[in-house]
Design goal:
The protein has helices at 3-21, 28-35, 39-45, 49-73, 80-92, 101-109, 114-135, 138-158, 163-180. By secondary structure, the chain is mostly helical. This is AcrR family transcriptional regulator.
Length: 181
């Protein structure tokens, strides 16, 4: 197994286990077992568990945002904000949906893991930036961001993907008010 393949296997196992069970509930031995990579090699790539958590979150951020952006930008500019909530509805409906990995990680580790906190903030700042661009203003984008985050938390806790529909209706109300203003 070459360097890249081992790293991918480690990150795949980490993502599956951390997202499903939580970071603190998963030890490095479980990552080793789930990846098929030796513990010695795991620690060569990720000397501390925090390094692995940060790498997992950075990779998840890249894939998650790319999927969202690709979906939303396939729509006309006037339909992009509502499309965000359609994309969220699909994500919330996935069998393995367990809420936001960034909120979950920060909730578990908080400021005690400054690298994880930094990655979570960077993710949220990037999402907010996209929403500001799609909404056409910082203020409206920030309001839409609050709806996205709220819907994600609600869906994560309740398991009900219709939280995206409720937030979409609220976003459409905000968009109408902004265009009438």
């Amino acid at each position: 197994m070459d360097h890249d393949e081992a790293r991918v296997k480690l990150l795949d196992a980490a993502e599956e286990l951390f997202y499903a069970r939580g970071i603190q509930a998963v030890g490095m031995d479980a990552i080793r077992s789930g990846s098929g990579v030796s513990l010695k090699r795991l620690y060569q790539y990720f000397p501390a568990k925090g390094d692995l958590v940060e790498a997992y979150l950075r990779r998840r951020d890249e894939r998650w945002r790319r999927s969202l952006v690709d979906y939303v930008e396939a729509h006309s500019p006037g339909d992009r904000v509502p499309a965000v909530f359609d994309w969220l509805r699909g994500w919330f409906s996935e069998d393995d949906f367990r809420g936001c990995a960034f909120i979950n990680s920060f909730g578990e580790l908080g400021e005690g893991a400054p690298g994880v906190a930094r990655v979570a903030r960077e993710h949220k700042d990037s999402v907010r930036g996209h929403l500001r661009a799609w909404a056409g203003s910082e203020s409206l984008g920030d309001q839409i961001f609050a709806l996205v985050e709220g819907a994600t938390v609600i869906a994560g806790i309740t398991g009900d993907p219709t939280a995206a529909d409720t937030a979409k209706a609220a976003a459409q109300t905000l968009l109408r008010a902004a265009s009438a203003g």
